[in-house]
Amino acid sequence: DTAVSQTPKYLVTQMGNDKSIKCEQNLGHDTMYWYKQDSKKFLKIMFSYNNKELIINETVPNRFSPKSPDKAHLNLHINSLELGDSAVYFCASSSRLAGADTQYFGPGTRLTVL
Amino acid sequence: GQQLNQSPQSMFIQEGEDVSMNCTSSSIFNTWLWYKQDPGEGPVLLIALYKAGELTSNGRLTAQFGITRKDSFLNISASIPSDVGIYFCAGQRRATDSWGKLQFGAGTQVVVTP
């Protein structure tokens, strides 16, 4: 009965590689987000999709490309990984249609770039 | 970008004591949210506030939406060991171009000793 799930939980990879993180929500929400949490625990939004359409795109390197195949899924693909990409990435979802601002977070993916 | 100032940065308290933390902003928000993050997990929503002056409780937690709409506080009464974690405030402006864009505080690390 997981609400927002992410895979993988941990991802260790070499600099220069390309990797993807997947997110799925079963809450029936229409909006999904990606956040980055740095080593100081600061949370910052990266992207937001509403009904598969990109609505928020913060100043994120274009090596990061989100993809939303449907309302329940939002994946994050990262090309040419750099050391500074090491962080915990959180997916979240909310219901814009219901007028609700509250966002529900997944368990996070800890990315380590060596 | 918009800064949310959350304080204190950390608190070391004894079991049974009350805890208070707050967030302030130079701009107004339409929504204030309080989250708790346990180690290795995603932020979990504790309380959502939608109206200036609103005071809402969730068990031993009480949060208020400041009248000026530029601040919010969270109280935890009679703390117990499982209250340990990082508490985040988050604010949101309900504008078309920023819907869903949560601004997070830096977090308050709470440590409860028996």
By secondary-structure content and strand pairing, the structural class of chain A works out as mainly beta
Instruction: Assign a percent range to the helix content of chain A.
Output: under 10%
Shape of chain A: globular
Strand content of chain B: over 45%
**What would you report as the Rg of chain B, rounded to the nearest angstrom?**
14 Å
Low-confidence stretches of chain B: none
> Uncertain segments of chain A of ≥5 residues (pLDDT<50)?
none
Q: Provide the residue-averaged pLDDT of chain B.
A: 91
Q: Kindly report how far apart the N and C termini of chain B lie.
A: 40 Å
Structural class of chain B: mainly beta
Q: Overall mean pLDDT score of chain A? A: 91
Question: What is the strand content of chain A?
Answer: over 45%
Molecular shape of chain B: globular
The succession of helices and strands of chain A, N to C, reads EEEEEEEEEEE
Tally of individual helices of chain B: 0
Task: Please give a structural write-up.
The complex is a heterodimer of chains A (114) and B (114). With 114 residues, chain A is an all-beta fold. Chain A has strands at residues 4-7, 10-13, 19-25, 31-37, 43-50, 53-57, 64-70, 73-78, 87-94, 104-105, 109-113. Chain A is 0% helix and 55% strand. The relative contact order of chain A is 0.33. The model of chain A has no long low-confidence stretch (mean pLDDT 91). Chain B is mainly β. Helices cover 0% and strands 53% of the residues of chain B. Chain B has strands spanning 4-7, 10-14, 19-25, 31-37, 44-49, 55-58, 61-65, 71-76, 85-92, 103-104, 108-113. The relative contact order of chain B is 0.33.
